[in-house]
Structures are given as C-alpha cells and as structure tokens.
C-alpha cells in the first residue's frame, strides 16, 4: 500500500468543508437562466434538473446502508455524491470524456486507488451500456436512465463490500454457482484491506480467479463470518431517546446530525414529520431495546442499548416503572445507576480551598449526596430557595446526626458564592445574579443553558477514557471526544471490580471514595476546570 495517497484518493472539494456546495452555484444559475430565457417552450431543456432525483436516490440508498451497518465513512460518499453528480452532468453536456474518466467520476475515489479496481469499473461500464450513450454527441433521456441504473449498481456493490458484516447465505451461491465469480462478499473484499496484495477486484472476483490473485483464506473467512456467534455483553448501558426526532441523531440515523449537538436540529427535519411519526409509532409497538454500539475494555465486552421510549413517557403515571431488586434477591444482574461516581466527580471538580458553595436547581439523588459530603468536610452549602433548603435540611437530619453537618446547610440569597452547583431548572434570572467569574458545576446529566459570558460553565460529571477502551466512536454531544459521563463509567468500573452489590434506589450510595479510587486505577481521568472550554 502506498505510504502517501495520490491526488485521486480523496475528493478535490473536501478542503472546502460545508462550502463544497458552492461549486453547484454556477451550474444552477446557468441552467435556470437558460431555461427561463427560452421563448419557445419546446426549446426549454428540463433535462439538466433531472440530476436531482438521481442524487436523491443515491443519498437514500447510501443512508439505508449506513443505518444497517453503522459505517460512518459511508456518509462522505453520500454527501459527496451531490457534487460528484453535478460534475457528471457537466461533463456529459460539455464534451465527450474518455470512458475511464467517466468511470472515475461516478465512483468513490478511494475505490480506485488500486489498479485492478480501475479495470473492473471500465468492464462494468461496458456491460451496462453506458459506453454508447457517452459517445453519442446527442444526449437524450436514455443516458439519465442508464446513469441511474449504473450508479445504483455501483453504489449497491460498493456498500455491499464495505458494510462490515456478512449476510449473503451460503445456499445462495450453491443455487447460483456462477455468482461466485460475478459478485463479491464483504469478507472477500475485507481480505484486500488486510492482505493488500490479494482480492484486488471490485464487484467481480472473476479477474482475481483468472490472474491467480485470490486469497487462499477467502472461503474459510466467508464461512466463519456466517457462523459467527452473537457476542454476550458483560456490561450494558441503557439509554433512551429524548424527543421523536432524536432518532436521527443516533448512529443508525444521519451521521451529519449525529456529529452535532442535538440542539442544532435542522429545518429539514420538520419536512420529515411523516417519517418521524411513523418511527415513533413503530418504537411504541416494538418496545424492545436495540444495540447502539459495542466496546472492548480489557476483558469486558461493553454494549450500549437504546430503549425505544421518549423523555415525556417517563413522566406519565401509567409509564412509570421501578426495578425491584429487593423483590428478586437472587438476581444475577447487578443494577448500577452511577450516582456514587457522579458525586465523586463533582467533589473532585470543586477547587481546593473552597469554603462555601451555592446549590440550586432541581434536587436529585446526586444533589443530596453532594450536599451531605460537602457538609461532612465543613464546607458551607447554601440554598437560595427556601423549599430546597428545607428538603436538604430534612435529608441531612435523617442521614446524619452530626450537628456540624447540619450547621453547614444554610439559607442564603446573597449569591456571593464563587462556586455554583447547578441542576436542571437553573433559570436565566438566577445566572444573572451570579458574580463575575463564577464557576457553574452541573450535577445534572444535561448541561444548563449558559447566559453569562463572564462566567465559566464546567462539563456535566464526566471523565476522560483510557486509550485501551476500544471502538469508542460516540459520546454525549456536549462532551469532548473520548469523554464519557460518570453514570456510564460507573457501570464499567463496577464490572471491572466485580462488586457483587446493587447501586439503585434513592438512598443507596456506594462508598464514594472507593469508587473514585477504583476509577482512577483503571485509567479514567477527571476533566480539569480551565478557561479554554468553559467560558461561554
């Protein structure tokens, strides 16, 4: 394999980023002008606009494969098919290009970084009758139909070879033995990316059989891939969707949205409300968790499952449910909500030397535990709302008989504290009352909406993951790369340590110091408070 890729191994418009669609502007303006300025309706050429249905079909086709195989790399092909299609149309209407150039413009550039791929693409082009249409100087509607057939076939075979899972049954090739030479499989092409000097041909292995470049392990790998057993997880992280359109932000949805915060929903999602409503209905009927992603960490197999329920459903009385671990004392699966590690992360995020903090927002299990732990250390915990103060005081009396601990809980509306521990429900009015340079440290799973430019907003309880944690391709979209929430990490640490205890229920908290030390020992690191990312 070449150490330095050539100029045709990537899209030429990739450096433009989001502005790559500007290359379409001259074509769109010219085509629209020529169509509108023709006086005779018979002379108006509408064929230039037929490229859009072709591009839309390619995008939908590739999106289906992305959802099936979770291959993020395919998105680059889907997004670039728009720009690539414009070049095809311009080339077909401006001049008659040589066949190899036409073949290169239709397929993904990374598919043609090998010499055998180039030869195979030309052969398929002749087989599908594109060559006569291209050579004909008079372009008629048949070229668009042929282009659509050709591109659909190319995209299908391209995605088939790179989908990363084997699904073609063995009986299929037994029933049609000639297809073995005319159609490749994902396992067949994967050997080319691992062995490099075998299985050169795209789509049709016939040429590899002719020239003797077939890898000897192709058949064995194909059969082993079909017999692969389902991997059983050691740790499962359960999550759920928040809003109906949040399904598009998952890995099985649109990668362009999954790589951006959920708050940056696009306008075109409103146009997809029929599909969104259908997916919501199917989620309600199906009502079974599905696998989102899988990781490897040391000897553990970690999986993330999504529950097809939405945030609002958990607030409905008829949807509420509890995990009755006391009802099933012999339950082998240990349930961990991760509150102890979240408390540990918050306590270690507070700068040393702090003597007082303000706790505000909707009180949770983590908030009560943080307030109690800080009071034990002699740090004053103030509450600006009388109702919240009474709840904290009552909880402290029930959980601790230490008078010093109770004295550290105070009711104050001075808003002079430099450290604010905030949860859901933090309002803009409260943030306005904070002093300049105040540090907001969330104890909630979702970050607050920042309004102050002269204050610092820390991340929600989370930690850096060690490099040995494999296949970590996603995270909460308000956290940096390879940073995982404390609630999620807690289950992993629980599994690594082999602790035979549950951590669920409002008053159940595992030893915070023990959990924190174990987490650090396994390579997780806290996020420091710096001005480089917290300042709004």
From TrEMBL:
GO cellular component terms, semicolon-separated: membrane
Positions of the Very-long-chain aldehyde decarbonylase CER1-like C-terminal domain: 357-526
Membrane topology label: Multi-pass membrane protein
Cited InterPro entries: CER1-like_C, Fatty_acid_hydroxylase, Sterol_Desaturase_Related
Compartments it resides in: Membrane
GO MF term list: iron ion binding; oxidoreductase activity
Pfam families membership: CER1-like_C, FA_hydroxylase
Keywords: Membrane, Transmembrane, Transmembrane helix
Descriptive protein name: Uncharacterized protein
GO BP term (any one): lipid biosynthetic process
PANTHER family per record: STEROL DESATURASE
Domain named Fatty acid hydroxylase: residues: 148-213
Main location: membrane
Family: Belongs to the sterol desaturase family.
């Amino acid at each position: 394999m070449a150490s330095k890729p050539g100029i045709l191994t990537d899209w030429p418009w990739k450096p433009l980023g989001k502005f790559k669609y500007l290359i379409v502007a001259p074509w769109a303006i010219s085509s629209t002008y020529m169509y509108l300025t023709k006086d005779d309706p018979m002379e108006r050429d509408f064929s230039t606009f037929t490229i859009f249905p072709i591009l839309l079909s390619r995008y939908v086709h590739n999106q289906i494969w992305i959802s099936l195989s979770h291959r993020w790399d395919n998105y680059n092909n889907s997004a670039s098919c728009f720009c690539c299609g414009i070049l095809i149309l311009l080339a077909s209407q401006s001049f008659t290009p040589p066949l190899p150039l036409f073949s290169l413009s239709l397929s993904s550039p990374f598919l043609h970084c090998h010499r055998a791929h180039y030869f195979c693409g030309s052969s398929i082009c002749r087989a599908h009758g594109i060559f006569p249409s291209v050579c004909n100087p008079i372009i008629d509607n048949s070229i668009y139909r042929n282009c659509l057939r050709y591109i659909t076939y190319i995209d299908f075979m391209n995605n088939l070879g790179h989908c990363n899972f084997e699904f073609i049954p063995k009986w299929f090739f037994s029933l049609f033995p000639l297809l073995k030479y005319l159609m490749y499989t994902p396992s067949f092409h994967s050997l080319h990316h691992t062995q490099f000097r075998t299985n050169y041909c795209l789509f049709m292995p016939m040429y590899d059989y002719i020239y003797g470049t077939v890898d000897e392990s192709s058949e064995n790998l194909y059969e082993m891939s079909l017999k692969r057993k389902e991997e059983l997880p050691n740790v499962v992280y359960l999550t759920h969707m928040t809003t109906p359109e949040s399904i598009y932000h998952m890995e099985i949805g649109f990668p362009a949205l999954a790589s951006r915060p959920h708050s940056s929903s696009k306008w075109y999602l409103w146009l997809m409300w029929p599909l969104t409503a259908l997916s919501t209905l199917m989620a309600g009927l199906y009502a079974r968790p599905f696998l989102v992603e899988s990781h490897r960490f040391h000897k553990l197999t970690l999986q993330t499952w999504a529950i097809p329920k939405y945030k609002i459903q958990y607030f409905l009385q008829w949807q509420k449910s509890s995990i009755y671990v006391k009802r099933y004392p012999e339950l082998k699966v240990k349930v961990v909500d991760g509150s102890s590690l979240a408390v540990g992360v918050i306590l270690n995020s507070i700068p040393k030397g702090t003597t007082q903090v303000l706790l505000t927002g909707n009180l949770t299990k983590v908030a009560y535990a943080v307030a109690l732990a800080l009071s034990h250390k002699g740090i004053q915990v103030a509450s600006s709302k009388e109702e919240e103060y009474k709840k904290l005081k009552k909880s402290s009396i029930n959980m601790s008989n230490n008078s010093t601990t109770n004295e550290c809980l105070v009711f104050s509306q001075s808003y002079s504290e430099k450290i604010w521990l905030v949860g859901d429900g933090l309002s803009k009015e409260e943030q306005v009352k904070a002093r300049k340079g105040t540090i907001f440290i969330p104890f909630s799973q979702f970050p607050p909406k920042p309004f102050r430019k002269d204050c610092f907003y820390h991340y929600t309880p989370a930690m850096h993951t060690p490099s040995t944690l494999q296949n970590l391709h996603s995270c909460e979209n308000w956290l940096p790369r390879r940073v995982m929430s404390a609630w999620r990490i807690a289950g992993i640490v629980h599994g690594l340590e082999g602790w035979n205890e549950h951590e669920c229920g409002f008053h159940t908290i595992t030893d915070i110091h023990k959990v924190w030390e174990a987490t650090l020992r396994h390579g997780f690191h806290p996020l420091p408070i710096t001005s480089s990312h917290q300042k709004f």
